[in-house]
Design brief:
Layout (H helix, E strand, L loop, with lengths): L8 H15 L1 H6 L7 H24 L12 H21 L4 H8 L2 H13 L5 H19 L9 H29 L6 H20 L6 H25 L5 H8 L1 H14 L5 H29 L6
């Protein structure tokens, strides 16, 4: 893992692209399941995530990693609850509504984080971020308004859309917790909180998933989700983030939306609905513009001033 410190910028970029591609596989994999649905899908994905982390964490951070868990810190438990919410809401939403709608809804997490951070810490937001929040909000309203009166929309799809909102909301709370812990001089290790969240998600969904209906093929796909769709790309992203600027990581992370929509469209034949494409264009455009402007501003401020 330490080799990441000598990665070139180009290699780190391609690693982040690979991570985004692996993250994006959740939608199309979910569409391959035959019997497992709803909470059972969430349980097995979270359960396999727990198994993967129990192996990966000691290899990555040493044999004493579990003894170092900050079990007495309230922030640790709250962060774990946020991860459990993200794990559960994401997978259940995917089984209830369109993949494109879920992915675009998740994309507003950075803007919600900025807004929540403003409310909690008083950190001032630049004008570009306020504009991005307004435009992305309009895009989300367009997406959800498209379901009003639609004959093809069901109560199940509506519920799935609402559940999808739980993902960016929980993400915003989580990153605000991490930011506040950093500011207070007690930075929160994010990886153990992921394990805690997976354990919580498994425990919560187990009674709702029983009796199990997943076939052997379903379990193989769900094990893939736990390891190759979540754990491996998360580790790759952490390593790439040691080389790339935060804005670059955010921008490359947006590829998950593009890849995810394309994969489920090409492989599963699930075409995005028109209001999702139009509203999603506003959301992604607002995010892209905000990150690019922020990146440009940071580079301009960091540029050395030449001789007069």
């Amino acid at each position: 893992m330490s080799a990441a410190g000598v990665w070139s910028h180009t290699r780190a970029v391609w690693v982040m692209v690979l991570a985004a591609l692996m993250w994006s596989s959740a939608g199309v994999v979910t569409r391959q399941l035959h019997s497992a649905q709803g909470f059972e899908v969430t349980f097995w994905r979270s359960f396999f995530t727990v198994l993967a982390l129990l192996v990966i964490l000691p290899l990555w951070q040493g044999a004493g990693v579990f003894r170092r868990f900050p079990g007495r810190r309230g922030a640790f438990w709250l962060a774990g609850l946020c991860w459990a919410t993200m794990f559960t809401a994401f997978m259940v939403a995917l089984t209830m509504t369109g993949v494109a709608r879920v992915l675009v809804t998740m994309a507003v997490a950075p803007l919600l984080t900025a807004l929540l951070s403003r409310m909690v810490t008083g950190h001032r937001l630049p004008t570009r971020t306020w504009v991005a929040i307004a435009v992305a909000g309009a895009g989300m309203a367009w997406m959800f308004a498209g379901q009003l009166g639609g004959q093809s929309s069901s109560g199940r799809e509506w519920l799935g859309s609402v559940l999808a909102l739980g993902v960016p909301l929980a993400a915003a709370v989580h990153w605000t917790i991490a930011q506040r812990s950093q500011a207070e001089g007690e930075p929160l290790d994010l990886v153990p909180s992921v394990l805690l969240g997976a354990v919580m998600s498994s425990a919560f969904t187990l009674p709702l998933a029983w009796p199990f209906q997943a076939t052997g093929g379903d379990l193989a796909w769900l094990a893939f989700l736990g390891l190759a769709q979540l754990e491996i790309p998360c580790v790759l992203a952490v390593l790439a983030a040691r080389v790339l600027a935060a804005a670059e990581v955010s921008l490359l992370g947006l590829l998950e939306i593009v890849f995810g929509i394309a994969l489920v469209w090409l492989i599963a034949g699930e075409a995005p609905r028109p209001e999702v494409l139009r509203g999603g264009t506003l959301v992604i455009g607002a995010l892209l513009a905000n990150e690019l402007l922020g990146w440009h501003s940071a580079r301009r401020q960091a540029a050395p001033i030449g001789p007069a």
